[in-house]
């Protein structure tokens, strides 16, 4: 994962659902080209935010011993532009009980209005002894730690309180 598109984990029901936030900032590089004079957050990056949220749900649900591998995205729709200053509220909910394969219904909202929806299909895989998979699992574990930390706790820790 080259970049993290999730700013906060709001809540998790392991094995069932996750809610996350993405704050869309005007300073993000993507707005240099998409589109000058009328910046819109790209739909592909909303799908990536869905995927990162779904990956966190899978990893958390399996104690970071299993990870999801995105197989496909279906029924993606974009209903409203996402602009700098918007806060995307993302919800990924598991729709099946197929064991080794999860189907995730993902929704992004801005100010209570649906901005995007998609269905993600993931294969669930053991990380085993694969060093690359272990490193990925550790990145998700660290991502979880950082995205669930309360800002005041982090500030107090850094101040030595």
Keywords summarizing the entry:
single chain; 161 residues; alpha+beta; Thiol Ester Dehydrase, Chain A; six-stranded antiparallel sheet; 6 strands; 29% helix
The CA-CA distance between the termini, in Å, is: 33 Å
Low-confidence stretches: none
| Count, helices | 3
**Rg from C-alpha positions?**
16 Å
Strand and helix layout:
Layout: E1 8-13, E2 17-23, H1 43-61, E3 66-78, E4 87-94, E5 101-110, E6 113-126, H2 131-148, H3 151-159
Antiparallel strand pairs: 1-2, 2-4, 3-6, 4-5, 5-6
Explained architecture:
A six-stranded antiparallel β-sheet has the order 1-2-4-5-6-3, covered by helices on one side. 29% of the residues lie in helices and 36% in strands. The model has no long low-confidence stretch (mean pLDDT 92). A hairpin with a 6-residue loop joins strand 4 (87-94) and strand 5 (101-110). Helix 1 (43-61) crosses helix 2. The longest helix is centred in the first third of the chain and has 19 residues, at 43-61. It is built from three helices and six strands. The protein is α+β, with helices and mostly antiparallel strands and 161 residues long. The chain has one domain (8-159): Roll (Thiol Ester Dehydrase, Chain A), CATH 3.10.129.10.
